Every structure is written in C-alpha cells, then in structure tokens.
Automatic annotation (TrEMBL):
The keyword Hydrolase applies. One of its GO terms (molecular function) is hydrolase activity. Residues 18-217 form the Phospholipase/carboxylesterase/thioesterase domain. This is Phospholipase/carboxylesterase. Pfam families: Abhydrolase_2. It comes from the Bacteria. The lineage of its organism: Bacteria, Pseudomonadati, Bacteroidota, Flavobacteriia, Flavobacteriales. Belongs to the AB hydrolase superfamily. AB hydrolase 2 family. Keywords: Hydrolase.
C-alpha cells in the first residue's frame, strides 16, 4: 500500500480467528530489501499478519539501508546515528499505520529484525515499549545512542526477547551481541543470547529455535 510511509510486502494469516490478528513486522539488514526476510514468511506461525518493510535509503547498485554506514580512513566504520534515530521514528510511525490499515491487534506486535533491522528493533521496542510485545533480534546489538529507555521499568514488564548471533560473524562481532542480556537485565527484561557456529546469517537451527519461541510467545 502506497499510503503507508514504508514500502512493504504482506502475508495475511493462514488461519482465521474471531479477534484481530497480531502483527509480525520484518526489518531487513543493510544492503538488502523487503524480499529477504519475507522468504521466512511461509514457515512462520499461521496466526500472524506478516509485514516485511523496505528500508527507505536506496543503495548502489542495489539494496536499501535504514541508515548510512560510513567507512572512514581515520575513524574506521561508524553508523549515522541521526539517520538511525529518524529510522526508529519512521518504523514507530509505520507500526501505527499498519495496525490501522490492516485492522491488526495493537497489543500484539512482534518485531523480527536482522542486523540493522535488529539494532532498530531494540531501539524501537526500548524507546516505545507500549507498542511492542516481542523482539526477535538476529545478528545485531543495542545501540545506546539511538535508544531512549524508560525510567519507569514497569513499562517493560510485558516485553519478551529472543536474541541470537553467529559466533564467527565478521560483520558484527559476537562480543557486541553478548552485551545485550546485561543491558536488558538493567531494564528488568530477561533475555539470553543464543549463539550458533555461523557467520553473519541465520542458521537453520536458529530459524527453528526462533519459530518455536514465537509459537510460545504468540
């Protein structure tokens, strides 16, 4: 639908229920597009209304990004946090738009993000916990510079997190992801990091584990 602020693909629930369906929002990584994680959709739990969003910044020769990553001779690799905050706000707004446009359950929204999409999933959920029920964070980390946690930690009581990473990830080292459980614990959010012997990607076992987790946290 062009009326929403992000281009996206949808898969409607494959089972009908009397109540409004929950939203599962897929957020792809840097240089990818909305088709990438959408390949998971047929294998995901049937009750979800699945939306796969396309990041707003086109890249050359193909693909899209949620925010720019700079490679600088003096400073090395660094992210444009101002663009990332703008992306956080755009995703937050898009959630409201999608819930309204497709008549979804606003109290049951799950973010599934990979890499940049994972980083933004944490940023959105920790800044706007009232909008999110579950986070599935794949191959990313918490960027504190783009996250505005609540001081009232009761805001996070309902939030559940599945976090995973590859132990030989050369794009985002696993050490960055290993900081996630302690950061979340300070917000009274329980999360364990699942590690898999792969690089920057989603291993089959990782997918089966997140699918099982999603069934239990639906």
């Amino acid at each position: 639908m062009s009326t929403l602020s992000l281009e996206h693909l949808i898969q409607k629930p494959r089972i009908q229920a009397d109540s409004k369906p929950p939203l599962l929002l897929l957020l792809h990584g840097y240089g990818s597009n909305e088709q990438d994680l959408f390949s998971f959709a047929p294998e995901l739990p049937e009750k979800y209304f699945i939306v796969s969003a396309k990041a707003p910044l086109p890249m050359q020769p193909y693909g899209n990004a949620w925010y720019t990553i700079h490679w600088d001779a003096t400073d090395g690799k660094w992210s444009d946090d101002e663009e990332a905050i703008a992306a956080r706000e755009l995703i937050s707004k898009f959630i409201d738009q999608a819930v309204a446009a497709y008549d979804l359950d606003a109290t049951n929204v799950t973010l599934l993000g990979f890499s940049q999409g994972c980083i933004l999933s944490y940023a959105v959920a920790l800044t706007y916990p009232e909008k999110i029920k579950n986070i599935i964070g794949l191959s990313g980390y918490v960027n504190e510079a783009i996250t505005k946690p609540k001081t009232d930690l009761s805001a996070y009581e309902h939030l559940s997190v599945f976090s995973s990473h590859g132990t030989v990830d050369q794009v985002i080292p696993v050490d960055a992801a290993r900081k996630i459980p302690a950061y979340l614990a300070d917000l009274n959010i329980e999360a364990k990091l699942k590690e898999y012997p792969v690089g920057h990607g989603v291993a089959p076992q990782n997918f089966y584990d997140l699918k099982d987790w999603l069934l239990k946290h639906a």
